[in-house]
Amino acid sequence: MRMTSLTKLGLVLTTGLTLLATPAQAQLAVDVDNAGNADLIIAVPALPTPRSDSTLAGTTEDLGNRISDVIASDLDRSGLFKPIGRSAVKRITVDEVTAPTFPYWQGRSAAALIQGFVRSNGDGKITVGCYLYDVALGSELTRQGFVVEPADWRRAAHKCADAIYSRLSGESPFFDSRIAYIAETGPKGNRTKRLAIMDSDGANHRFITNGQSTALTPRFSPDYKQIAYLSYLDGNPRIYVYDVGTGRQRLVTQSRNPTFAPRWSPDGRFLLYSMAIGGNTDIYKIPVQGGTPVRLTDGPGIDVGGSFSPDGSQIVFESDRGGGQQLYVMNADGSNQRRISFGGGRYATPEWSPRGDLIAFTKMQGNFRIGVMSPSGGGERLLTNSWQDEAPTWAPNGRVIQFFRTGRGAVSSTVWQVDLTGSNERRLPTPVDGSDPSWGPILP
């Protein structure tokens, strides 16, 4: 998908506009540390079209409605905004896209306004324009344009929402991304666990494996082309890499010993994994294309769940070497191993934030809760308080965490997300039960 300035597309409805915000425009912003108490009302009317042309994904008029809905839904899920969707406001014309009727939007109590358009290009593709306005000042804050295949209209909507989110929060985007997870069906004791992928909002859901062998702990490669996961394909827990484009998969190591908990290096060249030999489990690193694995831990006990720091220089992992599960950090070559968790209870499934400033984990002390701490072990905070929340995975911008939740006595589990304030907790829709989510980076 190509994203560019509307001025370069020759699609400007007026001229002389700029992408730069003035100091006065910069006053409109949301407080990311106050998520869950959203008070910035943002209007998202349907995107008009110069002419309702047919495309392979529907008419441009219909796409304008659906794109508006996705933008409003994305912004609502962030917990920072109160979107007013198209059903509650007037339809705008193409002429209004760059000349909003600000008094009308002020009458709707909107602080911000998203307008745009959808146009068929005549070559089978469509152009989606996206504009953000400060209603009180009557000024434009940003604009972007996207030339896409009609089938990619949802990505254009997510990109628009990402641009709005970043402009008003100052944070990196996260809507145009995908999630791998384990789709679960069947009775307790005989669950079918399939690998599946979907967009960050649960749309475009797709099963990857057929359930003939149990799949667990998936992780997208940084370029989204492959998924590393644990499979019982030959009856034993072993790590495979699935090629999303070809549908082929291959075993990472040739060892007959159980291997599990794969994690990609930030550059996509290596995999971390754990391997159990003779009752002892250690963390190893191996080139993605195969080769000789390097053992990074060698002490007694169970060392699992290795996760690279975003610069690839360090690894966080869990170990019971001290008598109970705790979090440890080591250099990428296995040196300088030191414990970082010292609170009560046990700690598991650590994952380093893509921003590098925090480590998410599961804390087991009575119930299972999702928490974060600094890489040095300071500032521990628990973000959830249900019966059993586990296996955190970070959004690309490092402000939202997904995990899976199992209720007391329940067979099924579901995928949830929470932001770093702990106040914007939401369930992600999946067609069947879900566990082990893995959030990939922003789509290339």
Automatic annotation (TrEMBL):
Gene3D superfamilies on file: TolB, C-terminal domain, TolB, N-terminal domain
Keyword annotations: Cell cycle, Cell division, Periplasm, Signal
Signal peptide range in chain numbering: 1-26
InterPro entries linked: 6-blade_b-propeller_TolB-like, Tol-Pal_TolB, TolB_N, WD40
Disordered, as annotated region: 424-444
Localization, UniProt: Periplasm
Domain TolB N-terminal: 29-140
Keyword Cell division in record: yes
Pfam families listed in its UniProt record: PD40, TolB_N
Reported function: Part of the Tol-Pal system, which plays a role in outer membrane invagination during cell division and is important for maintaining outer membrane integrity.
Family: Belongs to the TolB family.
Subunit structure: The Tol-Pal system is composed of five core proteins: the inner membrane proteins TolA, TolQ and TolR, the periplasmic protein TolB and the outer membrane protein Pal. They form a network linking the inner and outer membranes and the peptidoglycan layer.
Protein name as it appears in the record: Tol-Pal system protein TolB
Taxonomic lineage: Bacteria, Pseudomonadati, Pseudomonadota, Alphaproteobacteria, Sphingomonadales
Gene from which this protein is expressed: tolB
